[in-house]
Amino acid sequence: MLVGLCLVQAGPAADLVKNGKPLSEIIIAEKPARMTRLAASNLQEYVCKMTGAMLPVTNAPSENVPVKIYVGKSKYTDDLKLSTEGLAHGAFRMVSGPGWLALIGPDKDFVPLEPWTHDNKDRARALKDWDALNPGDYYGFPYSRFYDFYSPGLDAWDMDDGGTMNAVCEFLRGLGVRWYFPGELGEIVPKAASIALPAVDETVKPDFAMRRFMYWANNDENRLWNMRMGVNCGQELVGSIQTGHGQKWIHMRAEVKQAHPDWYAVYGGQRATNHSYSGAPCFSSEGLFKQHLKFVRMMFDVRREPALSLDPCDGIGRGGCECDLCKGKCTPERGWEGSMSDYVWEYVNRVAWELYKSHPDRKVRSGAYSAYLLPPIKIDKLSPNLGLLFCQARCKFNDRANRELFLNLRRAWLDKLPSGEIYIRDYYLHNCPRAGYGQPDIPIYYPRLIAEDLRSLKGVSMGDMIEVYLPGDSQKITWNPMAVMHLNIYATTRLWWDANQDLDAMLDEYYTLFYGPASREMKAFVEYSEKNWPLMSTKVEPIDKALELLAIARNAAGDTVYGRRIDLVVECLKPLKERREKLALYRKDAPLAFALECKGVDLKLNGRLDEAFWKEAPEYELKDIVTSNAPKFKTAFRVAWGDDKSIIFWIRCDEADMGNLNVSGKTSEMNIFENDRIELLLETQTHVYYQIAISAAGAIIDLDRKDSLNTLWSSETEAVVHKGDNFWSMEVKIPTADMIQGGLDPLKRVGGTRPTATAPWYFNVCRCRPRGAARESSAFSPTGKKRFNEPSKFGELIVK
Fold first, then answer.
1. pLDDT digits over 162-200, tens only?
2. Can you spell out the DSSP letters for 329-351?
3. Among 101, 225, 587, 749, which has the minimal tally of Cβ within 10 Å of its Cβ?
């Protein structure tokens, strides 16, 4: 176990510090690695904070100093025959003897190969040099923001080995030091007059080799916090460039799009050269295949990367290429998560096998993600050099059915993988204010789900690559993004090193040390939030209880450092009060509708409403928007939730005067709002709200109304209208996206996940029938006003 090592005296009585006076010195090599120097500095800093004694740092032992602390490898540790052989991925040793203590681990400096961008102004030069290395190929430049991985303030690369730093921080943890939160506010440093030389001989290896957080932005305070908790960027495992969507480097440049349009998928009769900015690939293109091999071999031979990602660009979950060579390669019958699995993995596996022939010592990987989350069924065993990047969200494992689904998926993938090499890609983005990603006003804690999952992954996965929101300088926010998220991150880092440690003991220590007199009250708040946060997006009662518990904790903390720590949470959750007030006013007696799950059914949109599936779906009628009475002309709708994560509406509008429908042609002009039309208003778990209007001619206007009126947003809605003798009808398919599905873009698609009883959507279906100066308006949930845009009156939607 890593925390609380028994540090007792070694042999004859000796001390590192005695009654505030230094009796030891820190010895490093004459030319230490960067992380060795940083480790020595940290040891010196925290011994001083604890005792007031400043231990000197030197590369030559002094005769008059009784105890030597060897930090990192040096000729002195060689003389003691202390080896770091066999230690990897941040592992370390702590060894002591009479008059000495050694804290050592591998500390190799990362040295980037040119060209790479040294700063934001260096991009043109670096790209020019990159193109000179690969004349005529016009590869994307994977090292275009490489400077983000280096900290001038710390003089350290994220990819530097950190074995000795891990040893020093573990030694300090044994003395009671903790780092719970970035910066001084987050550290616990006990006071002591003396520190004894411990008797220790420990070799510590992590349970997971890959321990990586991928922040949207980073800063030195946060970077140092992560180093002290023992993260490992893992470039020795996965390479130094982007860990996913690696195929984009072949086809993202404008020169390639112009020269090789046949490398790109056909969507709607057009080559998708601009899809998701990099273009969507056609996996039947031999030219693309050959260029892909050429690029990866160059990266292996010239750039000396140990491993690379082969998976396609983000956002291709809309379906496979429509060209003649690709037809029939997708498997829509497997549902959305498997609809592209064989199509994508047949290509990836083919590339991997060719690379295995030429570079059997190198690794490649691809993702289980989006519409290719399920393992392929047409491939028995994948190439021996091929690893898996398995995408999931631990926060969603409070849904036990979802948890079991992902456990079964891992087992199924392992059956296909001779390499047995699985990495977990997770998303700790709940503190992100960006639409579709997170809910920063809700206290989303889940350390127990993290512990449960990591224990199930010990000995199975290589470790985690976790995306975390941390804003850059240009993103103006008024709250600390780590206010709540820090506990999830801290628990993850400690469990990466020892997945089987006592979680209750770890958390009790956290509450006691971090919140002091409010420890019991903050424990009550966190544990209540952990159980009930999924309800807080839509229910008043759990919000009230959580805020009540937080207020009690804040009062208990008083005007202390503990109070300042709780203030971070209070500030972060201020918008939760606004959410609560809206919910209290909203949706009193809101009508409830059920969407029928469309499993294994490929609904063909024709507007005729003649699919047998629809007969099983509940039917709902619209009422007069003001009086709630039955309108003159009946409108009915049904709802389905598609295997492809889409919401599908069946809508029928009775009409006695079909010859005088107000339509102005199938356009997307704003005059739709003067037409006979249907409007769909959608509020998801993470977004308030979207408006989609479809005219009786099939024209569509879609608006994101979260912040005023965003007309640049596109729902990518498909709508087909049918006209009968005394009615008109439509089928409307609206694709959704979230961080797991892929393709999440604030300007595209409805951001949200499957509506459930604990996390429903709120919505309205409305009809407008204008005739001259008069108009009849009706809605599923009447607003009491002559307008549709009243989110306080939305009805509730749940998938049945």
1. 999 999 999 999 999 999 999 999 999 999 999 999 999
2. ---GGG-GGGTTHHHHHHHHHHH
3. 587
